[in-house]
Write a structure and sequence with these properties.
Shape: elongated
Order of helices and strands: HEEEEEHH
Distance between the termini: 80 Å
Number of helices: 3
Strand content: 15-25%
Helix content: 25-40%
Largest sheet: 5 strands, antiparallel
């Protein structure tokens, strides 16, 4: 399956971008990176014959990849032109999401006012907001146990002897 994915990825990369890098990922899939457009495409096996999971995402400022924004299952027996059209659609979705999403990639654009100091970090969806208190009851219990053990050890060293 990897050979078929690699061959398909090489063909897609040549159609989509002049400058690209194709490499194997840990899960047995293939990644196509377009550094100049700051996007990536991944082809991963789905378990079905001649089918692959096609995902697309952004490349962040440090060169790391952001999680996939869009994904679709494709038939690898379709021609390169059809797969390239699907890839272009996914890349357009990724670009649209990147344009609307606030973040460091939008900073410095004309018309954007930057405030001095550190920007507030947006909360992730589905997560509770962080509480200000960092030391929870479990941490206090552990600290009290450590203090008790240390006190008992010091008492056994110095408490039993008259001076």
């Amino acid at each position: 399956m990897y050979a078929q994915l690699r061959e398909t990825a090489d063909e897609l990369a040549g159609v989509l971008w002049r400058e690209h890098t194709v490499y194997r990922e840990r899960g047995g899939g293939v990644v196509i990176r377009g550094e100049h457009v700051r996007r990536w495409i991944s082809l991963a096996p789905t378990g079905g014959k001649d089918r692959a999971l096609l995902r697309a995402g952004r490349i962040l400022d440090g060169g790391t990849t952001a999680p996939a924004r869009t994904e679709v299952v494709v038939d690898l027996t379709a021609g390169t032109a059809e797969l390239a059209a699907v890839c272009r659609g996914l890349l357009a979705d990724v670009a649209a999401v990147a344009e609307t999403a606030p973040g460091p990639s939008r900073a410095g654009r004309p018309g954007k006012q930057e405030k001095p100091g550190r920007a507030a970090r947006a909360a992730r969806p589905g997560r509770r907001p962080r509480r200000e208190r960092h030391t929870g009851p479990g941490s206090w219990f552990v600290l009290l146990c450590v203090a008790g053990v240390l006190g008992a050890w010091l008492y056994s060293l110095f408490g039993g002897y008259p001076y």
